[in-house]
Design a protein that fits this description.
Blueprint lengths: L1 H12 L5 E4 L34 H4 L1 E4 L6 E3 L4 E4 L2 E4 L3 E3 L3 E3 L12 E2 L3 H10 L5 E5 L3 H12 L3 E6 L11 H13 L3 E4 L5 E4 L5 E4 L4 E4 L1 E4 L3 E3 L2 H5 L8 E2 L11 E3 L4 E5 L4 E4 L3 H15 L11 E6 L2 E7 L6 E5 L7 E6 L5 E7 L2 H13 L5 H4 L2 E3 L19
Parallel strand pairs: 1-2, 6-18, 8-15, 9-10, 9-15, 10-11, 17-19
Antiparallel strand pairs: 3-4, 4-5, 7-16, 12-13, 13-14, 19-20, 21-22, 22-25, 23-24, 23-26, 24-25
Helix pairs in contact: 1-7
The chain binds flavin-adenine dinucleotide.
Length: about 400
């Protein structure tokens, strides 16, 4: 989405520019969040998730090189290398995004599924048949969205998670508890605090998933182990790379003429401008517009607060800002009604972030307050109760994945 949005915006800003998009995948760019939602639930087809205007590249004079993997950047010559092709540039945008984090080689051999691409999701969709036993490794957003879709398809679902709760990497405890309860109510089973020992695939195509104290039988095994940024190209080009490709608020990397945008960037975020890599669609949708403006010699900055959403069963979850480091937490509405909001405040009582369950309007109000550094509006504050203690969680999957042998 980041590369696509930048290309379309650049065309608008620079009608005369020669624009080339190099795309590792064969398909036209598509809306990745639908892969575990509408596409997996068969509510949308592959054709319906192609991004707006991606079918107009020829008309817009954008050269789209499908299935073309950029292998190197010669920064002195200003050339991108792909096999025998050498594509010159005056200005270059890296929007290489992320890939699914994988188990160590050997453990997933034989048929487990990772869900990052359209091809991955179509393969999974074909396997979610009524009565099948699905085991999902990892209770993050992707794992839980797959669990919800699999239950809807009539599969039995067991989710295995190394930590003691769902969404423990990014959500405060009350939200984790709520989401866990939602899945239990919908018939999902959990195994917490356990690592996978081995996965053996039998001759009938089913799997034996070995945990510390039991073995689960599965027809389908799905891995939702988080993501890793595709930073190799940038690193090889000698750019400043830490957790992601380091950019300033104008999306400039450490090399002149090279910009980066989307999920792969480590960019200034929050009131103190701390560099962070944000794993969400919003940054991939909005930051490339800033990059394109600056690539076209304009002046724009990306200063938005992190924002993400997830859809599971009847629940739309939206999260804005930093929800883990509040010193005070406020709750608006009753979780039992499936319509409520959790707000994190700092020492000074200013909002850091919030999570809304079926309450998107609260997120819009919070977003304005966070970006402007102002207190939450009275209309929110007047209906909030203060929760007794801090609910911040620890980080689990940011380090290497631990798997018992
Ligand atoms: C199943 C799923 C569900 C999601 N649901 C949500 C959600 O509900 N809410 C939300 O906020 N976010 C969600 N996300 C995250 C969201 O999709 C990503 O944040 C977004 O796609 C990032 O966009 P991007 O363009 O930065 O990177 P990507 O989408 O990763 O795109 C990068 C592209 O660059 C290509 N590429 C990489 N390196 C090269 C190279 N060297 N040469 C050529 N091509 C290359 C890759 O093949 C890829 O196609 C979801 C992600 C997935 C996978």
């Amino acid at each position: 989405v980041a590369g696509h949005r930048a290309a379309i915006e650049l065309r608008r800003l620079r009608p005369e520019a020669a624009i080339t998009v190099m795309a590792g995948e064969e398909s036209l760019p598509y809306d990745r969040p639908t892969l575990t939602k509408e596409l997996l639930l068969a509510n949308k087809t592959a054709a319906e998730i192609v991004l707006k205007d991606a079918d107009r590249y020829a008309e817009l004079g954008i050269s789209y090189l499908r299935g073309t993997w950029a292998e190197g950047i010669d920064t002195r010559e200003g050339v991108v290398e792909a096999g025998l092709q050498r594509i010159p540039y005056d200005t270059l945008l890296l929007a290489t995004g992320s890939r699914a984090r994988r188990l160590p080689i050997g453990l997933d051999a034989g048929g487990g599924l990772y869900i990052r691409t359209l091809a991955d999701a179509l393969r999974l969709r074909a396997q979610l048949l009524k009565g099948r036993r699905v085991v999902i490794i990892g209770a993050g957003f992707i794992g839980l969205e797959v669990a919800a879709a699999a239950r809807k398809a009539g599969c039995s679902v067991t989710v295995v998670e190394a930590k003691s709760t769902v969404l423990s990497r990014g959500m405060p405890e009350p939200v984790s508890q709520f989401m866990q309860g939602l899945h239990v109510t919908n018939g999902v089973e959990f195994r917490f605090g356990t690592l996978i020992g081995a996965i053996d695939w039998t001759s009938d195509g089913s799997a034996l998933v070995e945990l510390a104290h039991e073995t689960l039988r599965a027809d389908v095994v799905v891995f939702g182990l988080g993501i890793e940024p595709n930073v190799e190209l940038a690193r090889q080009a000698g750019l400043d790379v830490r957790d992601g490709i380091v950019v300033d608020a104008q999306c400039r990397t450490s090399a002149a003429e090279i910009f980066a945008a989307g999920e792969v960037t480590s960019h200034p975020s929050g009131p103190h401008g701390t560099h962070r890599r944000i794993e969400s669609w919003r940054v991939a949708s909005d930051q490339p517009l800033v990059a394109a403006a600056n690539m076209a010699d304009g002046e724009a900055s990306y200063t938005d607060a992190p924002w993400l959403w997830s859809d599971q069963y009847d629940v739309n979850l939206q999260c804005i800002g930093d929800v883990l480091n509040g010193t005070v937490y406020l709750q608006r509405g009753d979780p039992a009604t499936h319509k409520w909001t959790l707000i994190a405040l700092d020492d000074a009582g200013l909002p850091l972030g919030g999570v809304a369950i079926n309450n998107g309007r609260d997120i819009s109000m919070l977003r304005r307050a966070i970006v402007n550094g102002t207190p939450i509006p009275d209309v929110l504050a007047s209906e909030c109760v203060r929760l007794p203690s801090s609910h911040a969680n620890s980080d689990i999957l940011s380090g290497p994945l631990r798997v018992s042998s």
